[in-house]
Design a protein that fits this description.
heterodimer, A: 80% helix, B: globular
Chain lengths: 143, 70
């Protein structure tokens, strides 16, 4: 193998950490699909309208899955699957997302208080926060 | 920080995946270090230097040219 060939990424083989990382990502994606399907079956009115209330049972099930299950999975993932370069990419993503939240959310609050923009939507803020975090992570890890 | 990782790897005919496996990091991490987009931690830098059996300053170059200031 010459130097030029050595500069090309080897796409055929993944390291053990990458394999584990890939399994986690695929598993998380599959779990997300399952949760959507579960919500569709249990709360069809909510899925259809996005404003209807959900039952207490559904709320508790999803709260346990997200609030207790996800932290355990995330902890194992960070310990076993990601390396220091990816951890740094996550930290950078969190840094940008935190600043976006710190500047963006209060800006929305005051503008909403002045009836300049629609009322604050917590779900949209959550989605934007995660979008920025994951976008920076992806950029730092893969480019 | 500049480094000779790409050259050292090519001299041994290793792929990024093979080097990543030896260092217990991903190919992306190897690529990011080689291209200077990511500076490894001190433990990983020492691990790299030990793997190639070289002093750390022969693998990494902080471009320090002398003087009193560190």
């Amino acid at each position: 193998m010459n130097l030029q060939e050595a500069t090309m990424p080897d796409l055929k083989k993944l390291t053990k950490r990458e394999q584990l990382n890939r399994y986690f990502l695929i598993g998380s994606f599959a779990a997300g699909i399952l949760l959507v399907l579960l919500m569709t079956v249990m709360e069809p009115n909510y899925v259809a309208s996005n404003v209807a209330d959900i039952s207490a049972v559904t709320a508790i099930i999803f709260a346990v899955l997200w609030g207790l299950g996800m932290p355990v999975i995330a902890y194992i993932w960070h310990i076993k699957a990601i390396d220091e370069q990816e951890a740094a990419a996550y930290r950078d993503g969190a840094y940008y997302a935190a600043y976006a939240l710190m500047f963006g959310a209060p800006t929305w609050w005051v503008l909403a208080k002045g009836n300049v923009v629609p009322p604050v939507n917590n779900e949209i803020i959550f989605i934007i926060f995660n979008f920025i975090w994951l976008g920076v992570w992806f950029y730092k890890k893969y480019t | 920080m500049k480094n000779k990782l790409k050259v050292l790897r090519a001299m041994r005919d290793w792929s990024q995946a093979q080097l990543g496996e030896a260092l217990d990091v991903s190919r992306q991490a190897v690529n990011a270090i080689e291209t200077g987009k990511y500076d490894p931690s001190l433990p990983l830098a020492f691990k790299i230097s030990r793997l190639f059996n070289l002093p750390i300053e022969e693998v990494f170059d902080d471009e320090f040219t002398g003087g009193n200031n560190a």
